[in-house]
Amino acid sequence: MAIQLSQRLINVKEYQKMAEVGILADDDRIELLEGKLIELSPVGRKHAAMVKRLTALLYDILAGELIISVQGPIRLGEYSEPEPDLALLEPSSNYYEDHLPEAKNVLLIIEVADSSLEKDRAVKLPIYAGAGIPEYWVVSLEARSVEVYRSPRGDGYDFQETFYAESGSKLNLPRSGRALSVDSLFV
């Protein structure tokens, strides 16, 4: 018979305090998901290159219309503070200096998946959907594809479609009327 141990969840305020007092160091690769400290997957060279490529492409297309957050924290309720690879945020004159962006400020979250594909689908997707993030993309390096999730409901999304490289597909960017070519991601 297995013994059920009770767990104590860490909230966002406690998590931030742990970083503030030095319990968590700047080089600790963790994020807070549903009250638990979760190690971030290692960032390989292909992952890092894709994040840089996406950042450059989005910057060129959006030209300052939205804030492009790169691996920055986002507060999603009392128990989650993920650090997605990229997020498109509503404009803020102080760039969220006075508070972390929250779900209501997020237009799109993008995760680049190399070794983290299942985590991005099974763990992060329900968190983002549950917080009401309107659109979520998973860029799969192995499949050379972008999974697009829209219209959050509960812990999932009503719309899901996968776009592959060399397909000529374009992904519409929120609020801009512009699109990003899937082919441009996989050069």
Secondary-structure blueprint:
Layout: H1 12-20, E1 30-33, E2 36-39, H2 45-62, E3 67-70, E4 86-89, E5 106-113, H3 117-131, E6 135-140, E7 145-153, E8 156-164, E9 170-172, E10 179-181
Parallel strand pairs: 5-6
Antiparallel strand pairs: 1-2, 3-4, 4-5, 6-7, 7-8, 9-10
Annotated CATH homologous superfamily: tt1808, chain A
In round numbers, the mean pLDDT is: 94
Predict the CATH topology.
tt1808, chain A
Rg (C-alpha, Å): 17 Å
Please provide the ordered H/E string of secondary-structure elements.
HEEHEEEHEEEEE
Report the major sheet.
6 strands, mixed
Q: Please report the first level of CATH classification, the CATH class.
A: Alpha Beta
Parts with pLDDT < 50 across at least 5 consecutive residues: none
Overall 3D shape: globular
Tally of DSSP helical segments: 3
Biggest sheet, spatial arrangement of strands: 3-4-5-6-7-8
Instruction: Provide the structure class.
Output: alpha+beta
Measured distance between first and last alpha carbons? 54 Å
Beta percentage is 25-35%
Q: How many structurally independent domains?
A: 1
Named CATH architecture: Alpha-Beta Complex
Which descriptors would you attach to this protein?
187 residues, alpha+beta, tt1808, chain A, six-stranded mixed β-sheet, two-stranded antiparallel sheet
